[in-house]
Amino acid sequence: MLSKVKERVSKKSKPERNIALYIDGPNLLRKEFKLDLDKLRKKLEKYGRIIIAKVFLNQFASEKLIEAVASQGFEPVIEMGGEKNEQKSDVDASMGATIMEGVFNPNVDVVAIATRDADFMPVVLKVKEYGKKVIVIGTNPGFSVALRNAADYVEEL
Q1: N or C: which end of the chain has fewer CB within 10 A?
Q2: For the chain, what are the domain ranges?
Q3: How is the beta sheet containing 49-58 ordered, strand by strand?
Q4: Which pTM was predicted?
């Protein structure tokens, strides 16, 4: 009986891992994917507690989208640049730099990257090199096989 009590106590006292979540908005927040940020958050609960949650968007993101991201408890990060005629802007470089800031945050145990983009392969490998676990979250079509294989954990939406 006493051993069962000790077992329960030791399981409860296990420290929860802290997660930094970075979402590639232009890549995943598209009408065709119908990404639900609350469902994404719930999927990550099994890995630990989200302490950083940033959604990267370009300057062409609508006010309604920015407001929706913020109202769900995520920090919208708006990136400038790109071609106005094409209505697109690349957030990958800024997102990669911000992910590396998370790597050096002593409070972060796990880095979660939501994207389909193989451009994040060098970032994933560098995060792992510094001893952090990596969760890659994506959806098809176009979810990079190389990115999946590099991650410690994969979640498909």
Answers
A1: N
A2: 21-156
A3: 75-79, 49-58, 18-24, 110-114, 133-138, 153-156
A4: 0.86
* Tokens matching residue 40: 């994404």
> In the numeric block, which tokens belong to residue 84?
């106005």
**Pick from 82, 154, 140: nearest CA to 112:** 154
Q: pLDDT tens digits, residue range 3-46?
A: 444 444 445 545 699 999 999 999 899 888 888 999 999 999 99
Tell me which CATH homologous superfamily contains domain 21-156.
5'-nuclease (3.40.50.1010)
The C-alpha atoms of residue 40 and residue 139 are separated, in whole angstroms, by 12
For residues 81 and 117, what is the distance between their CA atoms, to the nearest angstrom? Answer: 19
Six token digits for residue 140? 């098809």
Question: Which candidate, 54, 39, 157, 29, places its Cα nearest to that of 148?
Answer: 157
- The whole-angstrom separation of Cα 130 and Cα 126 is 6
Q: Quote the CA–CA distance of 28 and 65 in Å, as a whole number.
A: 13
